[in-house]
Amino acid sequence: MFEIVRKDEMAQGTNIRFDILAPKIAAKIQSGQFVILRVNETGERIPITVADVDRFSGVITIVFQVVGKTTALMRSLDAGDFIKDVVGPLGRPAHVEKCGTVICVGGGTGIAILHHVVKDMKEAGNYVIGIIGARTKDLLILEDEMNLLCDELVVCTDDGTHGQQGFVTEPLAKYLEERYDIKLAYAIGPIIMMQNVCKLTKKHDLHTMVSLNPVMIDGTGMCGGCRVTVDNRTQFCCVDGPDFDGHKVDFEELSMRNSMYLKEEKDALLFSIK
Question: Domain total for the chain?
């Protein structure tokens, strides 16, 4: 059993932050890696990439979006409640090294995953440019935390209610045109966002990493549910990722596979509410 020591509702309650006491995981987990949670004995297994870690207190931080029955159940939990299973660290860590200037782009809940990567990029001695975005101001998360970590931070909202109006690709395009010292790009967010970021960076031959979150079941490479096509080869996100070279990812296939069970997720959520 793993205790929730802190709960915050963000983005109008659609994104939830849990700080979970998990000392053994906290001692080993690195940015880019994920855990698999099971709320109770009969619950499904949910993979969530860790947003932060406090090794001293033995706490890991996750941020999840409420989209289906299980995440709705998780939202009903409070600080002091327990999650039955938390398994990790899983997946390969983000490749972090001192390379100079890096540009990190996050959208929606992906900002939480990006936060952990940016933290390590800064600790490695890099100059970090951050670009984060959401549909509207109320859906933006972790702006203050990202502002503390990034040397430069650009905030975008689709409707212009906060920061620059438009998509994250717009300030990214400007940076790529004006700066020649950027050595690496990192993009985490909705599939279409990552795909468009990669289209831009490919024009500038800028190495770009993305963090993928396909449908996943066991998290050990046994089931094959999280397969993705990278460089025309089948890869398993749980053991080969979740980070991949964005210029080699088949985003069209990824988008199709990730949308296969949207109806079932919605139906399960509606049934649980009833």
Answer: 2
Degrees, nearest 5: CA angle 117-123-129: 60
- Would you say residue 93 has pLDDT above 70? yes
What is this structure's pTM?
A: 0.89
Sheet holding 34-38, edge to edge: 46-49, 34-38, 85-90
131 and 181 part of one domain: yes
* Domain harbouring 26, CATH code: 2.40.30.10
Would you say residue 42 lies in a domain?
Answer: yes
Q: Position 261: which residue type?
A: Y
pLDDT tens digits along 200-246 = 999 999 999 999 988 777 777 788 778 899 999 999 988 998 999 99
Per-residue confidence at 265, pLDDT binned at 50, 70, 90?
A: low
Kindly list the distances between the CA atom of residue 236 and the CA atoms of 13, 38, 46, 109, 140, in Å, as whole numbers in the listed order: 32, 21, 16, 22, 30
Q: Give the per-residue pLDDT at 266.
A: 59
Our CA angle for 249, 123, 137, nearest 5°, is 65
> Tokens 């025309």 correspond to what residue?
232
Phi-psi region for residue 166, left (φ > 0), alpha (ψ -120 to 50) or beta?
left
Range of the domain at 235: 101-258
270: amino acid identity, one letter: L
